[in-house]
Design brief:
There is one protein chain. By secondary structure, the protein is an alpha/beta fold. The protein has helices spanning 52-58, 71-82, 92-105, 113-116, 120-127, 135-142, 154-168, 181-195, 207-226, and strands spanning 3-11, 22-31, 34-43, 86-89, 117-119. A 5-stranded mixed β-sheet has the order 3-2-1-4-5, with helices on both faces. The longest helix is centred in the C-terminal third of the chain and has 20 residues, at 207-226. The N and C termini lie far apart (38 Å).
Length: 228
């Protein structure tokens, strides 16, 4: 039995070296590459402001995070959930860099990227060379429902990425009966709780704005990690 963790973060910006912080972490447990329904999800107070351009992406304002724990207060719970499992993320270097910056900031050991990271962007580019590898593009390619995706959020993005990952690993014919009803409900409850969050005061981004953002994020992330 192989256990892995699929995870995503939302942040105040693109670079922790410039003072950006995590504001949301979501992680899903996979057994033999299929979701079990076990979910870790937490909102984090970043101890700084959230720039308006970041709010346009994920919908969070600093007012939404008042009273939420700081990363140092959730670090042990996150580390306990992930254990020593492999870590799957879409553009994994970006999320690893933020998580490791937060872990270092609160005196914890960083995660080892070389031995633990699985990057679904790299997987998609190898499987479909020359084609877009954004999460939206892959969902459309595999016929995965994007109707719940307005602004970005870590929990819903993890749910979508879990479906994408199954397809990248060979498709659902590998067996979807792994998760029992009680475990499946835990994921559904998490998604429903996210959907029931009070609506933001801003207008939701248009489909065109989301498409432009996907291209922008991919460009910036690639630049950050390949500038050397």
């Amino acid at each position: 039995m192989k256990r892995s963790i699929l995870f995503d973060t939302e942040t105040t910006g693109f670079d922790p070296d410039m003072g950006d912080r995590i504001i949301e972490i979501a992680a899903l447990e996979l057994i033999d590459d299929l979701p079990t329904g076990e979910v870790y999800h937490v909102l984090v107070h970043p101890e700084r402001d959230i720039p308006p351009e970041a709010t346009k992406v994920h919908g969070f304002r600093i007012e939404d995070l008042e009273g939420k724990p700081k990363f140092a207060e959730v670090a042990d719970g996150f580390l306990e959930f992930i254990g020593d499992s492999s870590m799957i993320a879409h553009n994994a270097r970006f999320d690893f860099k933020f998580v490791n910056a937060e872990l270092k900031f609160c005196g914890r050991e960083p995660l080892d990227y070389a031995s633990r990271a699985i990057d679904t962007v790299e997987m998609a580019r190898k499987k479909y060379p020359g084609l877009p590898a954004s999460l939206d593009a892959l969902c459309r390619r595999f016929g995965i429902d994007l109707s719940q995706r307005g602004t970005h959020n870590a929990l819903l993005d993890c749910k979508l990425l879990a479906d994408v990952y199954v397809e990248l690993m060979g498709g659902r014919q590998r067996g979807l009966g792994l998760a029992g009803p009680s475990r499946s409900r835990s994921m559904t409850d998490g998604i429903n709780a996210l959907a029931s969050r009070p609506p933001r005061t801003m207008a939701p981004p248009t489909a065109e704005e989301l498409q432009v953002h996907e291209v922008f994020v991919s460009t910036i992330k690639d630049a950050v990690w390949h500038r050397e």
